[in-house]
Amino acid sequence: MQENNGDTKTSIFNISLRMFAENGYENVSVRDIAEAVGIKAASIYNHYESKEKILDACYDFYLKNRNTFRLNREQYEPVIRNGTKEEVLNLFSYIFDTSIHENMGYAVFVIYSRVFSDARAREIYAGEMNDSIQYLQEVFSFGITIGRFNSFNIQAVSLVILSTRVFTAHSTSIQPEQKIEWYKAQADFSDELIKIVPFNY
């Protein structure tokens, strides 16, 4: 049977990302990946030059998709103006398309677990922090301006929200077996936010 190169490369990527997240990048070999995919180790190199290139692909995937949960101003303004509290709070949650949701979760684990050992992971992490703070402050400021939120310390609340995410993701990247807790924390995020965001309705 002829190998479908596209499907095989996709399988290598998906399985590698999961294994890096669950076992740690350093603890996964090319042979381990090949065995999980069901191909010979040498076949990996038909698609990726090295294990490092697979890791780069994981980073690229995250960078390409990390902002897809964020709405632009034209999209979030109607939600702030007319949405329920739950709909407004969803603006701050990581809700990715179902086709990439699981892989984005794995990518977070990989990046956060490598922040102290990998310059590129550190750069991505810093960019995510800056982008998130900017987004939160932008949305909160608009909500205050139109009277949907009472006035509050936007920077402080934004840092609390971001710190909670970072702490949870860091914890799970250290103990990947707890990743289900990370997903649960994301699902419960609105319940916590509603306690600290001063809605005016």
Describe the structure.
With 201 residues, the chain is mainly alpha-helical. The protein folds into 2 domains: 49 residues, Homeodomain-like (Arc Repressor Mutant, subunit A); 131 residues. It is built from 11 helices and no strands. Helix 1 crosses helix 4. The chain is elongated. The termini are far apart.
Please give the structural blueprint.
Blueprint: H1 5-23, H2 30-37, H3 41-44, H4 51-65, H5 73-82, H6 85-89, H7 101-113, H8 119-145, H9 154-174, H10 179-187, H11 189-196
Helix pairs in contact: 1-2, 1-4, 1-7, 4-7, 7-9, 8-9, 9-10
What characteristic shape results from the CA principal axes?
elongated
Return Rg in Å.
19 Å
Determine the N-to-C terminus distance: 63 Å
Number of beta-strand segments? 0
Largest β-sheet summary: none
Q: What's the number of structural domains?
A: 2
Poorly predicted segments: none
Nearest-integer average pLDDT: 86
Strand content: under 5%
Q: How many helical stretches?
A: 11
| Order of H and E elements | HHHHHHHHHHH
Helix content: 55-70%
Structural class: mainly alpha
What would you say about this model in short?
The chain is an all-alpha fold.
Task: For this entry, give a set of tags.
mainly alpha; 201 residues
